[in-house]
């Protein structure tokens, strides 16, 4: 079955332009599904029946897999068979009528503005690593970009004069994001004083460097964030995405329109952005309950 997965992966990467992490996720799901089909003595996708897909998903449920994991598997399997139908390799999609489990949507963890201030005050700006960390945290909160986008930035992607950032999101889709004056100040300081000391090779274009003078990784940034979250007495649940959620929520709380926030976050579907309106409504309700005499 490996050749089928390779063809499908090529389609996802080249034709649909999906990110490597997403393609890898599809591959893992399908590899597990094909292992199951092997035990079922099924050697070709054309022979797969809906009942077998349902049985596979029930097996995932029995082993304690989360509804979100099962739902992702349904999406992977359905996309794979849609690809085969589209290329006239099979006549119909056996997963078409398979239902995904209902997922309870959890509201993302959001920091208050005071908590954000406390976190951003943690890096000491008296050495190159501190300058870098300060610049990264300020930039992440000022722009709402993903951590993968942050560590992928090159020096030429930052325009301090214009106050904009060019980043490449999922599927390498490029977008321009505004950056506030405070973040611009600290990134400029890092570029002029910190990065020069960390740089080992002149042909290194990465904006944020590690102590080896190479591009900082996602894992490296996670460790840095965890350290400052502990120092600021914040929950262990704080992740790079927490700052992205906080960025979006604080914009909406202060009057930003949903479409603009969608553009800044790089969401292809506005329904993804709408989850933040639930957070702002919840906060409004809390304020009302605390302050109205007849609440």
Task: Report on this structure.
Strand 2 (164-168) and strand 3 form a beta hairpin. Strands 1-2-3 form a three-stranded antiparallel β-sheet. The longest helix has 20 residues, at 20-39. The termini are far apart. The chain has helices spanning 2-15, 20-39, 50-62, 67-86, 113-120, 128-143, 147-152, 181-198, 218-231, 240-253, 258-265, 270-273, 275-291; strands at 158-159, 164-168, 174-178. It is globular, with a radius of gyration of 23 Å. The chain contains 13 helices and three strands, in the order H-H-H-H-H-H-H-E-E-E-H-H-H-H-H-H.
Give, in spatial order, the strands making up the sheet with the most strands.
1-2-3
Strand content: under 5%
- Could you name the ranges where pLDDT drops below 50 across 5 or more consecutive residues? none
Number of helices: 13
Mean pLDDT: 87
| CATH fold type of the largest domain | hpI Integrase, Chain A
User: What is the 3D shape?
Assistant: globular
Sequence of secondary-structure elements: HHHHHHHEEEHHHHHH
Shape-level CATH architecture of the largest domain:
Orthogonal Bundle
* Highest CATH level, the class of the largest domain: Mainly Alpha
Number of strands: 3
Q: Describe the biggest sheet?
A: 3 strands, antiparallel
Which superfamily, in CATH terms, is the homologous superfamily of the largest domain?
Intergrase catalytic core
What structural class results from the helix and strand content?
mainly alpha
**Integer tally of domains:** 2
Compute the CA-based radius of gyration. Answer: 23 Å
């Amino acid at each position: 079955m490996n050749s089928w997965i390779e063809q499908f992966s090529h389609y996802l990467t080249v034709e649909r332009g999906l990110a490597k992490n997403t393609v890898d996720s599809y591959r893992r799901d399908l590899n597990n599904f094909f292992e199951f089909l092997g035990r079922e003595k099924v050697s070709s996708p054309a022979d797969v029946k809906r009942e077998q897909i349902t049985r596979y998903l029930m097996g995932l449920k029995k082993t304690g897999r989360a509804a979100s994991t099962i739902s992702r598997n349904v999406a992977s399997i359905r996309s794979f068979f849609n690809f085969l139908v589209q290329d006239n390799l099979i006549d119909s999609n056996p997963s078409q009528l398979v239902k995904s489990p209902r997922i309870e949507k959890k509201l993302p963890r959001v920091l208050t503005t005071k908590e954000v201030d406390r976190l951003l005050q943690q890096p000491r700006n008296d050495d190159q690593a501190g300058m870098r960390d300060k610049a990264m945290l300020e930039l992440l909160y000022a722009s709402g970009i993903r951590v993968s986008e942050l560590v992928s930035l090159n020096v030429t992607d930052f325009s301090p004069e214009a106050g904009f950032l060019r980043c490449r999101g999922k599927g390498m889709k490029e977008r321009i994001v505004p950056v506030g004056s405070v973040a611009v100040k600290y990134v400029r300081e890092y570029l002029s004083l910190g990065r020069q000391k960390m740089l080992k090779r002149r042909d290194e274009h990465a904006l944020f460097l590690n102590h080896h003078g190479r591009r900082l990784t996602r894992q490296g940034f996670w460790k840095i964030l965890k350290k400052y979250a502990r120092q600021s007495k914040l929950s262990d649940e704080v992740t790079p995405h927490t700052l992205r959620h906080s960025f979006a929520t604080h914009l909406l709380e202060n009057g930003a329109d949903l479409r603009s926030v969608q553009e800044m976050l790089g969401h292809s579907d506005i329904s993804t952005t709408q989850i933040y309106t639930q957070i702002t409504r919840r906060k409004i309700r809390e304020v009302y309950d605390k302050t109205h005499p007849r609440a």
